[in-house]
Design a protein that fits this description.
Length: about 290
């Protein structure tokens, strides 16, 4: 609807300007608004573009995406219907004519990608040579890698989520359309727990750090050089960030019998096994 009004306005203005130039010489011709001509007509000249009919857009008319084509046909072609010479907003509006409803898509304009003007067609392909999940321009990990090399490199560290192995995708945790790009919620990390259900609780005895800081205070979400993708090289160092005598740490001090010079006490989770929460031990011993 907006597009039609816009198109009409543009046409009106250009006709008006033309009218001024031509004033007095000829009577102005009535402004022509492009009308739809139907897929059959487009395919007369563009018979190689039928691939769209093998995608989930099979029932979508050419002109629903490209715009009405009567003027284009009359002119015998031109760049007016092309995506190539259009800007980010034009493409977004064109696609969002239909794709505005899903909650994550209705937020698209506020996403980091939209703010950086990464267009729908940077990631999605309307006329794919080969069918791909989500109509992506390339396999998802290659697509994301084309712009986020540093993040992708983290999945090559010794301990990592199996994205490169194909067992999960970036979009298992991120939604590329929404604000903040995160599918994983802050704080409670509900989404980490959607796969790691045993870490979720509710527990009788919650480990407060988990609730307040989320999983990422102890784990690196993509990958790590440390076993269990921990943020520190040894379990003890993860814990002592909060459980030490130094000022400003959030947790209590371990009882005095914890002799940290002794190797026995360095592997905290050998004893505090239920570190994510427990229903029986307030000290997470089981
Ligand atoms: C009479 C033949 C003819 C018909 C019918 C026709 N086109 Fe075209 N179209 C052309 C020609 C020729 C070009 C190339 C223009 C150029 O390169 O400058 C073109 C260019 C295009 C482009 C841009 C191509 C590019 O390389 O960027 C698009 C998109 C397009 N047409 C879509 C359509 C759609 C959609 C329809 C139906 C509404 C349609 N065309 C109907 C002849 C036609
Ligand atoms: C879902 C929206 C959509 C539909 C439906 C669609 N196209 Fe396209 N078309 C695009 C987009 C987006 C591009 C730009 C290249 C890409 O992303 O694949 C494109 C590219 C083209 C091009 C090449 C010029 C360019 O802009 O790069 C032509 C020609 C074309 N389409 C014709 C057609 C014809 C003919 C039909 C109907 C049979 C059709 N398209 C249906 C979205 C669509
Ligand atoms: C006229 C309405 C319409 C327009 C315009 C439109 N789409 Fe769609 N799109 C659909 C329908 C219908 C489906 C299939 C049903 C569904 O999955 O919701 C679909 C499905 C999709 C899918 C899902 C593919 C899959 O594998 O599940 C993607 C991605 C997509 N569209 C992207 C786009 C992009 C990018 C544009 C703009 C170039 C666009 N669409 C323009 C109607 C539209
Ligand atoms: C940064 C890349 C990127 C951008 C930009 C992007 N998408 Fe997507 N889109 C994806 C990925 C990845 C998926 C998930 C595919 C899957 O599930 O395998 C997806 C899925 C979809 C789907 C299908 C399933 C769903 O979740 O509803 C639609 C429809 C869609 N996108 C439309 C759009 C539209 C419209 C735009 C522009 C307004 C857009 N996308 C911009 C990457 C992107
Ligand atoms: C065409 C390049 C491009 C592609 C493809 C792309 N991104 Fe992005 N992405 C960006 C840009 C630019 C930003 C915003 C600047 C920044 O934060 O790096 C961004 C931001 C992000 C952010 C937010 C970063 C932050 O600091 O908040 C995440 C998460 C993200 N992208 C994930 C993905 C995923 C997952 C994919 C694959 C489905 C993907 N991106 C594909 C260019 C891209
Ligand atoms: C297991 C869930 C998960 C998977 C899978 C995942 N991410 Fe992330 N990603 C996160 C979390 C959580 C953050 C936030 C990290 C933070 O805030 O400290 C993040 C942050 C990011 C950022 C912001 C910059 C940064 O490093 O903090 C980008 C960009 C990003 N991810 C891209 C990707 C790409 C690309 C993929 C796929 C190759 C991917 N992610 C797969 C969970 C995941
Ligand atoms: C889509 C499901 C999924 C989501 C979401 C997910 N993970 Fe994972 N996670 C896995 C899989 C699969 C593995 C690999 C298990 C294996 O190798 O045996 C794994 C492994 C791990 C490991 C290492 C386990 C080990 O024994 O070395 C940790 C730690 C972990 N995930 C934490 C997280 C965190 C933190 C988040 C949220 C940022 C998260 N996961 C989100 C599926 C998921
Ligand atoms: C207070 C720090 C801390 C927080 C917060 C935390 N973890 Fe852990 N997690 C650990 C430690 C330490 C280990 C290694 C335990 C060991 O040594 O066996 C571990 C191990 C794991 C493992 C692999 C071993 C197993 O038990 O399956 C997974 C998966 C995991 N955590 C997921 C999560 C998820 C999901 C969250 C958020 C809901 C989370 N963790 C929050 C410290 C933490
Ligand atoms: C981000 C800070 C943080 C990290 C990291 C952390 N904790 Fe905690 N932990 C807390 C807070 C806060 C509490 C609840 C307050 C308190 O100490 O009584 C708590 C409670 C505990 C308790 C129960 C104390 C009680 O009063 O009964 C134990 C045992 C514990 N943590 C062990 C560990 C171990 C072992 C690790 C390392 C794997 C660890 N914590 C990592 C913040 C943290
Ligand atoms: C040899 C087993 C063992 C090891 C190793 C161990 N602890 Fe403990 N820890 C205990 C026991 C037993 C308690 C007391 C439980 C009780 O009285 O309920 C305890 C209690 C605690 C408490 C609770 C203090 C309170 O106020 O209730 C904290 C915090 C704690 N340990 C942290 C750590 C940290 C950090 C490490 C690693 C540096 C660690 N523990 C290593 C056995 C161990």
């Amino acid at each position: 609807m907006n597009k039609r009004i816009l198109a009409t306005t543009v046409l009106f203005l250009s006709t008006f300007a033309w009218g001024l130039q031509q004033q007095g010489s000829q009577p102005p011709v009535p402004p022509s608004v492009p009308e739809k001509v139907g897929d059959e007509m487009c395919l007369v000249c563009h018979d190689t573009y039928t691939s769209v009919k093998r995608t989930p857009h099979a029932s979508v008319e050419c002109e629903a995406c490209h715009g009405a084509g009567s003027l284009h046909v009359e002119a015998g072609g031109g760049m007016d219907l092309s995506f190539k010479n259009k800007d980010f907003s034009w493409v977004k509006d064109q696609c969002q004519d239909c794709h505005r409803q899903a909650p994550h898509l209705s937020n698209f304009s506020r996403s980091a990608h939209a703010r950086a003007m990464v267009s729908c067609t940077s990631c999605h392909q309307a006329h794919p040579e080969q069918a791909r999940a989500g109509m992506l321009t390339q396999a998802q990990k290659d697509l994301c890698a084309s712009c986020h090399q540093a993040s992708v490199a983290q999945f090559r560290k010794p301990f990592h989520h199996p994205v490169m192995e194909g067992a999960m995708t970036c979009s298992s945790c991120h939604t590329p359309h929404s604000e903040g790009q995160r599918r994983v919620a802050f704080g409670t990390e509900i989404e980490c727990a959607s796969c790691h259900t045993d870490k979720k609780g509710p527990f009788v005895f919650e480990h407060a750090s988990l609730e307040v800081n989320g999983c990422e205070i102890c784990h690196q979400p993509h990958g790590s050089v440390n076993p269990k993708m921990l943020t520190r090289s040894q379990v003890r160092l993860v814990c002592l960030r909060c459980h030490s005598a130094s000022a400003g740490t959030a947790g209590s001090q371990p009882f005095a019998f914890h002799d940290l010079r002794s190797p026995r006490f360095r592997e905290c989770t050998v004893c505090h096994r239920a570190i994510h929460g427990s229903n029986v031990s307030s000290s997470f011993l089981r």
